[in-house]
Specification:
The chain has about 180 residues and is of the alpha+beta class. The protein has helices spanning about 15-50, 80-100, 105-125, 150-165, and strands at about 1-5, 5-10, 55-60, 60-70, 135-140, 145-150, 175. The chain is globular and about 55 Å long. This protein specifically catalyzes the removal of signal peptides from prolipoproteins.
């Protein structure tokens, strides 16, 4: 069964309108749950960790350490908070538009995590100190090499899922690209 030139559907996959709604719902649930967990853990980090010493969970491997990050990954780009905010808005809009075409479970999970990660850190940049669109992201999960948060974990897992699906040749709509 051919879906398009160079693409084929996997046998038994449901690719009708109902399937799209199912995967869009999965995207929304993954994004919403991840965003809630991210925001709740950041509120708890501010309340419980700010101004305190690190709490070692696994010696020399994992601890809880409060940090306000004005930049991107590993504190890079600290002077570009407004630019990072604009990029996060653009990514969020693009991902939300892509989600309307979902017909693959793993793409739904990956894009849901990507959306939640981008919006989670964007919320910090918009609503946290020192000013709107200049706010610092709350990081508190200390891996010894860098400090991150739930949104960062979501972005990392999203990247892995998206690369995996792309490498396998599976599109958002569930079609598999046939290699020549």
């Amino acid at each position: 069964m051919q879906a398009a030139r160079g693409a084929s559907l996997s046998p038994g996959d449901d690719h009708g309108p109902t399937a799209t709604h199912t995967y869009v719902r999965l995207f929304v649930v993954v994004a919403a749950l991840t965003l809630v967990v991210d925001q709740v853990t950041k509120v708890l980090a501010v309340e419980k960790l700010q101004g305190r010493e690190s709490i070692e969970l696994i010696p020399h491997v994992l601890s809880l350490s409060f940090l306000r990050n004005g930049g991107a990954a590993l504190g890079t780009g600290a002077g570009f908070t407004l630019v990072l905010s604009v990029v996060a808005v653009a990514v969020s809009i693009a991902v939300a538009r892509m989600a309307t075409r979902l017909r693959d479970r793993w793409w739904a999970v990956g894009l849901g995590l990507l959306f939640a990660g981008a919006v989670g850190n964007l919320c910090d940049r918009i609503f946290r100190e020192p000013a709107p669109f200049k706010g610092h992201v709350v990081d508190f999960i200390d891996y010894g090499v860098f400090v991150g948060n739930v949104a960062d974990i979501a972005l990392t897992v999203a990247a892995v899922v998206i690369v995996w699906r792309t490498w396998r040749g599976i599109g958002l709509d569930g079609t598999r690209q046939v290699k020549a």
